[in-house]
């Protein structure tokens, strides 16, 4: 039982860590690669995670013509 709880916690934390990158990818953000790099390199710091999260919500999205 402890294994499943630990696996659940680790999975949840991993998804939360990469949430800004997932949002940018789903929204087809024009700066997805930069957001991913910021998230991976500075997301652990907290401020980097917040910055990448806010950036992923900006309006620089690709639209299909």
Helix-strand blueprint:
Layout: H1 2-17, H2 19-26, H3 32-42, H4 47-56
Helix pairs in contact: 2-3, 2-4, 3-4
Offer a concise description of the structure.
By secondary structure, the chain is mainly α.
Annotation keywords:
4 helices; 65 residues; single chain
How would you describe what is shown here?
The chain has 65 residues and is mainly alpha-helical. It has a domain at 17-60. The protein has helices at residues 2-17, 19-26, 32-42, 47-56. The longest helix has 16 residues, at 2-17. It starts with a helix and ends in a 9-residue tail after the last helix. 17% of the residues are buried. The model has no long low-confidence stretch (mean pLDDT 93).
Largest sheet: none
Structural class: mainly alpha
Overall geometry: elongated
SSE string, helices as H and strands as E:
HHHH
């Amino acid at each position: 039982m402890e294994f499943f709880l630990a696996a659940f916690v680790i999975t949840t934390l991993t998804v939360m860590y990469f949430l800004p990158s997932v949002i940018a990818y789903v929204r087809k953000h024009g700066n997805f690669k930069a957001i991913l790099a910021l998230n991976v390199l500075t997301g652990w710091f907290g401020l980097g995670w917040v910055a990448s999260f806010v950036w992923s919500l900006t309006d620089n999205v690709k639209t299909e013509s």
